[in-house]
Amino acid sequence: MAEKSKQDEKESAGGDKGGSTATVAPKSKTKPTPRKNPPGLLPLWKVLLHNDDKNNVVFVIETIVELTPLNVQDAEERTVEAHKSGVSLLLTTHKERAELYQEQFTSKGLTVTIEPAK
């Protein structure tokens, strides 16, 4: 009985049961991981407000304040500039947000274009 308990201890401790052979796992070649550069800033795009004769100034100002982070004073300045010169830079942002602004202003009946900032 003592022999049986010693054999059980060997088996539970990873001992040989008899006939099995130990294998060594092959060394795997690990490639050094390349250094990744942190993501850079996205390219900037201009959101340009164009003058039109169909929308009144108050509506344009209210729409700018509603859709952008600009305050009333900044919205007034941009609206007057677009009225006098035909176009005004509303803001500069990344392309996806610029496209969103363009769609939102267009849905309100205002003419807004986007172009890459240089």
From TrEMBL:
Superkingdom per UniProt: Bacteria
Domain Adaptor protein ClpS core: 43-112
Recorded GO MF terms: peptidase activity
Gene3D superfamilies named in the record: 3.30.1390.10
The protein's name in its UniProt record: ATP-dependent Clp protease adaptor ClpS
Organism: Humisphaera borealis
Chain residue ranges for the region called Disordered: 1-40
Keyword Protease: yes
Keywords per UniProt: Hydrolase, Protease
One record GO biological process: protein catabolic process
Biased composition (Basic and acidic residues): 1-14
